[in-house]
Design goal:
The chain has 7 helices and 2 strands, in the order H-H-H-H-H-H-E-E-H. With about 160 residues, the chain is mainly alpha-helical. Strand 1 and strand 2 form a beta hairpin.
Length: about 160
């Protein structure tokens, strides 16, 4: 099974490299489920929220290691103030999409927060299930069209 996963990952990496080029992919890339930006209106996410989530996802390298960029780092990358980032993250937290986890250094100083995105995942899940259901319905409908029998024509071309 590990070999299958490694092969799949290698194939996936090749497809990504084929789309974006070697330099861009080797410099790093981020996965964000399409349903989050496809259904951003239903999730009540504005473009800046999506941008913030995209950046947070870019810092989320391992499932158990939550992203923890500083508000200043996000602000500089996006081109807004740290206060704007703080307000938007507070709104994302109010909606339950992001959970801020405070961190302290051993000396007691504040460190950048960690951001748990499990609320966003939970909120987007029904939309993903809906889309998967729609895809399956279209697949079934298409398959049914292919196997439908056409009426036979009587001899001479008339029914």
């Amino acid at each position: 099974m590990v070999t299958d996963q490694a092969t799949t990952k290698t194939e996936q990496d090749k497809r990504i490299r084929a789309k974006w080029g070697k330099s861009l992919t080797e410099a790093g890339w981020t996965a964000l489920p399409n349903i989050i930006f496809e259904r951003q209106q239903a999730l009540q996410l504005d473009p800046l929220d999506i941008n913030i989530l995209l950046h947070l996802a870019g810092y989320w390298w391992h499932p158990k290691d939550m992203p923890r960029p500083s508000k200043e780092t996000l602000a500089k990358a996006i081109g807004v103030t740290a206060r704007t980032i703080q307000r938007h993250i507070a709104e994302l937290e109010k909606w339950g999409y992001v959970k801020r986890i405070s961190r302290k250094a051993s000396a007691g100083d504040n460190l950048p927060n960690e951001y748990d995105l499990s609320g966003l995942i939970k909120a987007a899940e029904p939309f993903a299930q809906e889309k998967l259901s729609d895809i399956e319905s279209r697949r079934t409908e298409s398959a049914n069209r292919l196997v439908r029998k056409r009426p036979r024509m009587a001899e001479g071309g008339k029914e």
